[in-house]
Specification:
Layout lengths: L1 H6 L6 H9 L3 H8 L7 H10 L23 E3 L34 E6 L12 E6 L9 E7 L3 E9 L5 E5 L8 E4 L3 E10 L12
Parallel strand pairs: 1-2
Antiparallel strand pairs: 2-3, 3-8, 4-5, 4-8, 5-6, 6-7
Helix pairs in contact: 2-3
Length: 209
Amino acid sequence: MLDYATKSGLGYGWKSRLARKCGVTPAHINNWLNLGREPDLKTALRVATALGWDFDRARPDYVPDVKRADICAKVKAGTAEFVEEAPLAFDALDNYFKRSRYAVYTRGGQCYVGVDGDSMSPDYPDGSAIVCAAWNGDTLPHYTPVIARVDGNAYTFKLWTIDDKGEQVVLVPINHAHQPIVGTLSQITPYLVVLGVAIIERKEHHHGK
């Protein structure tokens, strides 16, 4: 507090000056510094303002890595029958990280994918967006959320698990109303690993009467 008080222009004798600004006595300031007691919220706000710690003047040392991005694709999170249908409503994921006009990149080669279907709800609801990164070939822990390639030409979003022998793969939906997809490693492979849910900026459309 001493350093901040000096930088805030209170100078020497800052305890007395700060006490006057906060409407308390210097003894209160000493008590707070020695952790004898804490000020109430209203007084703490006055102290923060006097020292230049109020929100409007704050300059954070850490700025989180948040970027705006458009959803660049959609992946099915629906029924098992999907794997026999046309894979996606956009160019094949094989070209996903090669064609920048189709993909949105963030740090580490991540991208955003829209969820189409409710088999992964409530954790990943229909219409939400997930942050993904290319699978690097490492062994995945059981129940890792992935976008998996099925039979070489279709993709689906499920939880990845494999038996102890490393032979039979099960893609598990979170929503128990849907059935798991079962196959071998030659039939089912991870393609993208899901890192989390993206924050979506929703635009409201106002229609005139």
